[in-house]
Specification:
about 220 residues, alpha/beta, Rossmann fold, 5-stranded parallel β-sheet, 9 helices, about 50% helix
């Protein structure tokens, strides 16, 4: 029997880190849907394919192979047999992924894959449209929010730790532009599901957010059982 936790939220809200921790503590299968769109984006960029070149995008989608594997407790992302876990987190992909994720053909390819993953397992899936499009009937829907400034600060800190030379102001503008693109796209725009529980992580530690979400999930499970 499946049990689905959907965590949606903007870039930099801490979804990835929080989802990993919750998955470990509750023994849920963690599925990073954003990684799938990042893989498609990387494949398109590597082949010099623009978001407007639909025929070329379809050719890529016909051949693409994306695998999410767990190795030594860590999620490893494979694109066409190659480990791209680090590459898909680069600023190059950050700046491009929203444009490719808005392409209908790409979403039509990725969404069924995501739904298939949630058929028989107890999963926690994070992204932008999990509770609204992929799993509108998810057992638990959480919207992890955060202020723009705090999201930019976190992403800037991550970049510094990775040796990526980009200013805080550039990161802030990039996040603002990505938010604009995601909320204004015509295909699966980024919105909060009406029945999602909002958790604002702006002034919370990772531990506090994880604790809060675990409590929400456990309470929902009681009601279901």
């Amino acid at each position: 029997m499946s049990f689905i936790v959907a965590i949606d939220g903007p870039a930099g809200s801490g979804k990835g880190t929080v989802t990993k921790e919750v998955a470990k503590k509750l023994n849920l299968v963690n599925i990073d849907t954003g990684a799938m769109y990042r893989c498609v984006t990387l494949d398109c960029l590597n082949n010099n394919v623009e978001p407007t070149e639909i025929d070329k995008i379809n050719n890529i989608l016909d051949k693409i192979n994306i695998e999410l594997k767990i190795e030594n407790g860590n999620q490893i992302i494979f694109l066409n047999g190659e480990d791209v876990s680090e590459e898909i987190r680069s600023s190059k992909i950050d700046n491009a992924v929203a444009k490719y994720a808005a392409v209908k053909e790409i979403r039509d390819k990725i969404t069924p894959i995501q739904r298939e993953m949630g058929k028989n397992d107890e999963i926690i899936m994070e992204g932008r449209d999990i509770g609204t499009v992929v799993f509108p009937d998810a057992d638990v829907k959480i919207f992890l929010d955060c202020s723009l400034e705090e999201r930019a600060r976190r992403r800037y800190k991550q970049n510094i730790e990775k040796g990526i030379n980009i200013s805080y102001e550039e990161v802030l503008e990039s996040i603002k532009e990505r938010h604009r693109l995601e909320t204004q796209r015509t295909i699966a725009p980024f919105v909060k599901a009406e029945d999602a529980i909002v958790v604002d992580s702006t002034n919370m530690t990772i531990e506090e957010v994880v604790f809060s979400i675990i409590n929400i999930i456990n309470e929902k499970r009681k009601n279901i059982l």
